[in-house]
Every structure is written in C-alpha cells, then in structure tokens.
Amino acid sequence: MKKFFPIVAFIAVALISLTMAGFAYFATQEAARIKFAATADDALNRIDSRIDLHLSLLRSTHALFEARNGDISRGEFKAFFDALGINDNFAGLRGIGFLRLVRASDEAAVERAILHDYG
User: 83 φ, ψ to 5°?
Assistant: First the structure.
C-alpha cells in the first residue's frame, strides 16, 4: 500500500488541479460573456437614444410646419434651425432642410431661385 501512496497522491492532486483549472476557465469565460453583454447593451442604448433624439428633431420640424400650415419662409426655417442649437444638442448632425413641392411648369423659376440663394 505504501508503494502506491505517491501515485495516488499525484493523481489526487492532478485531479484537484484540473478541476480548479476548469472552474477558473469557466469563470473567465462567464466574465468575458458578461462584459461583452454589458458593452453591447451600452452600445444599443446609445444608438437607441441617438435615434430618439433625431426623431424628436423630425417631430419638432413637423410641428413647425403644421403650426404654420406649411407656409414657412427660408428665413423662418433658418431661425428655427439656429434656435435648435444643433452643434450643442445634436452632435454629429450636419443639418436639416426642406424642399417645396414645385409644379413642372415652375421649374425655371425654382432653378433661378436656387442659383440665386445657393450659387
């Protein structure tokens, strides 16, 4: 019996070590999964809040047009746009704009107006 004691002790220690290594492996895998899930949730929440912010901008622009029955001048729209504080409140947004519906017979006048306003 004494001659098998070192072998039994070695096998017992090896099994305990393998078990502990397995627990450590699964713990690190679970920690990585939890970290990834938290990062993905954070990214999703940021995207969701950004979309909500841009939708609120569209809703406010729609409300402006509804309040004025669609009759709004370029200067009024620019004043509205400037009052929104786009650089401070809507980071990354380059701008918003609108186009009026034009009859096909009015194309030449609209082209002249665009050339005059925007060069």
Answer: -70, -20
pLDDT, tens digit (0-9, with 9 covering 90-100), for 17-66 = 999 999 999 999 999 999 999 999 999 999 999 999 989 999 999 999 99
Contacts of 95 by beta carbon, 8 Å cutoff, 6+ apart: 81, 86
CA atoms of 107 and 92, how far apart (whole Å):
33
Instruction: Tell me the two tokens of residue 17.
Output: 């070590």
For residues 82 and 74, the answer to whether their CB atoms sit within 8 Å is: no
pTM (predicted TM-score): 0.62
DSSP string, 47-102: HHHHHHHHHHHHHHHHHHHHHTTT---HHHHHHHHHHTTHHHHSTT----------
